[in-house]
Write a structure and sequence with these properties.
It contains one helix and six strands, in the order H-E-E-E-E-E-E.
Length: 112
């Protein structure tokens, strides 16, 4: 039987450490929508680690605009890391409706 640690480390797809500019829009919080430039710092076919200047709630849905392809996709916030010294937050997000490759890159575990 797999250990708890092994199960946590197993992912649905490989991650690639990369910097991709994105724009993140979060639904209204306290009467106002949040919209800001951000970056994806690690991506997989099913999610990403985003660095952004505001903190959406865990479980909330956000819209991510890919800064290069201009494609939009909806994600759910699944994890939050504490605020970094440079003032931004890091969020783990999962893509809600995976289809084709949103990030537009090849992943190491893809079959050729």
């Amino acid at each position: 039987m797999a250990t708890a640690r092994a199960m946590l480390e197993r992912r649905r797809s490989s991650r690639v450490h990369i910097r991709i500019p994105v724009r993140v829009r979060s639904p209204e919080m306290n009467g106002e929508a949040r919209d800001a430039s951000a970056e994806a710092i690690s991506v997989s076919r099913t999610g990403a680690l985003l660095r952004l200047p505001f903190l959406p709630e865990i479980g909330s849905r956000i819209e991510v605009l890919h800064g290069l392809s201009q494609e939009r996709r909806e994600f759910r916030v699944i994890a939050v890391r504490e605020r970094k010294d440079h003032g931004s937050f890091e969020l783990g997000v999962e893509i809600l409706y995976p289809g084709r490759n949103f990030w537009g890159i090849s992943f190491p575990d893809e079959r050729r």
